[in-house]
Amino acid sequence: MRTLETTSRPASTHAPNVPADPAEEEVPSSIDPNRLGDRLIRILIPVGMLAALILLWAWYVSAYDVPHYILPSPARVAKAMIEDWHILGPALLVTLKITFTALAMALVGGVALAVLLIQSKWIELALYPYAVILQVTPIVAIAPLILIYAPTTQSALLICAWLVAFFPILSNTAQGLKSVDHNLLNLFELYDANRWQSLYLLRLPAALPYFLTGLRIGGGLALIAAVVAEFAAGSAGAGSGLAFRLLESQFRLNIPRLFAALILLSVTGVLIFFVTSLISHLLLHKWHESAVKREN
After folding, report:
1. At what angle do helices 242-251 and 255-284 cross, to 10 degrees?
2. Which contiguous run of DSSP H or E holds residue 284?
3. What is the DSSP letter of 36?
4. Cβ contact 198:67 at 8 Å
5. What letter does residue 224 receive in the DSSP assignment?
6. pLDDT-based confidence at 24, cuts 50/70/90?
7. 14 phi, psi to nearest 5 deg
């Protein structure tokens, strides 16, 4: 019988000319165009809306020949902002000092009292109702009393701003400390964790989103309370804030300066909200469901 021998050809050193899979050759880009476009849209739409409102404002004043002591044009307001900056700038610094000092005091006092409240149900029943009373009482109503007992007008304004910013931080932080998963609390007890270990390792991290929500609310309220308290106190002079400059501009019918002071207050409030929102995003975007982007 003849044996049929099959000769094997040596494998070619060149791969066949097969078109590569596009999915395999695609290199992930460090910048996602979709996300970049979405961010640009989020910025351009509000900026475009603001520009349209300013143009509409300028057109209305020019078309109907509105007197500047009733509604000044954007150009007049910008001119007043520049020319009166030596008046508005120091007043803005006074308002900012009161706002941020009151917010810092509210952060320390609100978190400390929230931690104290969760230690015992009796402590919560004894103290929390009075915190609610301070919150629901209009600050304008108690400002005269604070002005009587406070040593200086600035300290009275600080106390008024602190009272308004204090409760949102207290209530949100206390709610976060009490909203811990009971299964995790049982696990900590199973491993014989003491009260402070449970507070530091479990309750405080779980309450962080609630605390940051209170921070965003308290930041805006501290600015509002600083202005309202100055209105109620009727403070005047070189050390007064933007609230007095608003009243002064109204009495003198200097409406462009009044609008400039209002714009400064609005921009300050927006910046406070932006900074507190940025802090919240930086602390939560890697792990909390409220900040993590959905995959689908």
Report:
1. 160
2. helix 255-284
3. H
4. no
5. H
6. very low
7. -105, 135
